[in-house]
Design goal:
The complex is a heterodimer of chains A (323) and B (355). Chain A is mainly alpha-helical and 323 residues long. Helix content of chain A is 80%, strand content 0%. In chain B, helix 4 (137-173) runs antiparallel to helix 5 and helix 4 (137-173) packs across helix 9 (256-264). Classes of the chains: A mainly alpha (323), B alpha+beta (355).
């Protein structure tokens, strides 16, 4: 019951946060000297009525506070306006967000499955050659710029022809059976996932190693050892539980970092995600689309942090007691 | 304290190598005008996408000779529809050291035309080939490095005072002030940083001089990072402000501003040093990412990021791999900064075992 109360409180806290985020992003975008409807007006396939409707919806002839109010109300209602090419922004976002979520969640799962065990092994074999080699490898993984690595992998893909060069689906995707479709997407995901995986694995492994070393140094682990427990039990039963908790907090940060890192990777691989969408929108100064994708990025990030916090409440009883 | 840190840094093998690498890179960049055989904007349109020059030290008779190179000739092969480059063997161009070449102003001040190495007037030496406009990649690497390797530091010097003061005020005053200030900082942190970066960069007006653009990008980079930093500082201030010496300062009537800046913030120095060295590489990466997608440093100015922009085309990455060299340099310098940062963290915080 207490836990539930805390979780609800935590969820409610995100609402004012998102309001402040929306105010900040709204004013940043309105700082730009571009007429928000310029592209729309230039597009011959869009009727003057649509432009007029957008103008009224955005309240462009009214003071900026009123504009924000109008924007916020229609955002909550789910009406995000139209893009400069006349499509519905919400449709566009619905197309793109799942792809970004797919990419990031695969990467997070993979890094956890590989990074956590590697961190544990490195900590258990502290200062042995194995640990040193891992440290060197993670240093390299952290230093390589995501877009450069992506370009290198593209070069590899083009030269060998083993992997598709960008995109998410093959041209004949529509005619495939369900199983083939699944394989096709997986095949296209290999390279972008490799880039993001390499980059986020390094920091996760290091963090896990540091936590594990801290815990292995604590009194209760020494006691467990003194009691004569096997090393396996000490590490995996006693130490691991406490070492993994801080990692859950990190999950939120990791998600945030991935959203940013994914943008460049998506761009290089021409992957149809939120990152590519916002880049295209920014290049075309498509204000509606920029604003909406910025908000969606923030919502995703806040939700990611929220999930991490809730997980932490569920796994770490100390936090429940404190609150 | 700084001296102690350096001593320990020197003891660590990796950190020593990293320091060497960075010193060499910065020296090269500082003397870029002199070391580069061409100026930043020198271009020879007939020499677009020329591969790296070959330097010969043994002549066609098998005898040792002064180092020389041949120019490339660009030819269109109408059978295979390919552009081919072959040596123009009719004339040898000897490489001259400390000789006169393209005139330049050293660091924009001292006029000179002496280059470390160059070749005769109609010869061309391109250590790392050329780009689409026939500009020497090696020279542009050096000039671009000046921007890429300083922009992060400048951003840090803008960001840290802001973050320190913001975190200091928020933590010291506490209560409502703290709540409002921290909500604002959290909101900034809730926007994926790269999204914020490209949006801020895209609202920059287009008709700016390169110096103005450079400065604004510094400010944008600083705007991204201050919030996270301020939050950590605030946490530290919360614990420092309860200490007795702060109460003593309060009781003799020191002003709040003085207590924050003179008594509390100096206590965070070691954290600030660690945070600074650890965050330099992320700013180098941010700038290069921004320039890579075309929103950062603009042509004709060079930066490692915008030089890599050409590597976005398939034909370039396959047939002209020398265009990828800026990426290698970004990698090396970020790696060096990371190694030094890790070592400094270990020295200042012996409990941390991240390495």
């Amino acid at each position: 019951m207490e836990t539930l109360k805390y979780i609800i409180k935590r969820i409610l806290q995100t609402i004012p946060l998102l309001i402040v985020v929306s105010i900040i992003s709204f004013f940043i975008i309105r700082l730009s000297p571009v007429d928000p409807l310029a592209e729309l007006k230039l597009n011959p396939s869009i009727s003057p009525e649509t432009v007029q409707k957008e103008k009224e919806r955005l309240g462009l002839d009214k003071p900026i506070i009123v504009q924000y109010g109008k924007w916020a109300v229609s955002f909550v209602k789910g009406d995000l306006g139209v893009t400069s090419s006349g499509e519905k922004v919400s449709r566009k976002l619905q197309e793109r967000i799942p792809y970004t979520l797919l990419l990031t969640s695969i990467v997070i799962l993979l890094t956890w499955f590989v990074g956590v065990p590697l961190g544990i092994i490195a900590a258990v074999n502290w200062k042995t050659p194995f640990d040193r080699i891992l440290t060197v490898l993670t240093s390299i993984g952290m230093a390589i710029p995501s877009f450069f690595f992506a370009v290198l992998l593209l070069m590899f893909a083009v030269k060998t022809g083993w992997f598709p060069v960008g995109g998410l689906t093959s041209p004949d995707f529509a005619d495939m059976s369900f199983g083939r479709k699944f394989l096709d997407i997986a095949y296209h995901l290999v390279l972008p996932v490799t880039v993001l995986f390499t980059i986020s694995l390094a920091s996760l492994q290091r963090q896990m190693r540091a936590n594990m070393l801290d815990v292995l140094d604590s009194d209760y682990v020494k006691f467990a050892r003194a009691k004569g427990l096997s090393e396996f039990k000490v590490v995996y039963k006693h130490a691991l539980r406490n070492a993994i908790n801080p990692m859950i907090t990190l999950l939120g940060f990791e998600f945030a970092g991935l959203l940013s890192g994914a943008a460049l990777t998506e761009y290089v691989f021409n992957y149809p995600g939120l990152g590519t969408l916002i880049l295209e929108a920014v290049m075309k100064s498509d204000i509606n689309l920029v604003m909406a994708s910025l908000m969606m990025g923030a919502v995703m990030l806040v939700t990611g942090n929220l999930i991490a916090d809730i997980l932490l409440i569920l796994t770490d009883p100390r936090i429940r007691v404190k609150s | 304290m700084i001296r102690e840190v350096f001593k320990q840094l020197w003891k660590d093998k990796f950190a020593r190598v990293a320091l060497f690498v960075l010193v060499i890179i910065y020296m090269l960049l500082f003397f870029a005008d002199f070391i580069a055989p061409y100026t930043k904007d020198f271009s020879d349109r007939t020499m677009a996408y020329v591969p790296p020059s070959k330097i010969f030290t043994i002549d066609e008779n098998g005898r040792f000779s002064k180092p020389y190179t041949y120019n490339y000739i660009r030819e269109f092969d109408s059978n295979t529809l390919e552009i081919k480059y072959r040596f123009d063997r009719s004339k040898k161009h000897y490489i001259k050291f400390f000789a006169k070449g393209e005139p330049y102003k050293f660091l924009g001040l001292i006029p000179s035309s002496i280059h470390l190495f160059t070749t005769d007037k109609d010869g061309r030496i391109y250590l790392l080939g050329t780009d689409i406009n026939g500009r020497d990649v090696f020279s542009r690497l050096l000039f671009g490095g000046r921007i890429s390797m300083t922009i992060g530091f400048l951003a840090l010097f803008v960001l840290f005072p802001i973050g320190l003061l913001y975190g200091g005020i928020s933590g010291y005053f506490g209560g409502k002030v703290d709540m409002i200030m921290m909500r604002f900082a959290e909101a900034i942190m809730s926007i994926p940083s790269f999204y914020l970066l490209i949006i801020l960069a895209s609202i920059l007006p287009s008709g700016m001089t390169s110096a103005q653009r450079f400065l604004l990008i510094v400010i944008i980079l600083a705007l991204i990072g201050w919030a996270g930093f301020a939050r950590v500082v605030r946490g530290m201030v919360l614990s420092i402000k309860t200490q007795e010496y702060v109460q003593a300062a309060q009781s003799i009537g020191a002003s709040k501003f003085r207590i924050i800046t003179k008594h509390i913030l100096p206590q965070t120095t070691s954290f600030v040093i660690v945070a600074m060295t650890l965050s330099v590489p992320s700013y180098i990466l941010s700038e290069s990412g921004l320039s890579f997608i075309g929103l950062g440093i603009q042509q004709p100015d060079a930066s490692w990021g915008n030089m890599l922009k050409e590597a976005q085309e398939f034909t370039n990455i396959i047939y002209r791999p020398w265009l990828l060299t800026p990426g290698v340099l970004i990698f090396i310098s970020v790696l060096a900064f990371n190694l030094i940062g890790d070592t400094i963290r270990d020295i200042l915080d012996p409990q941390s075992k991240v390495r």
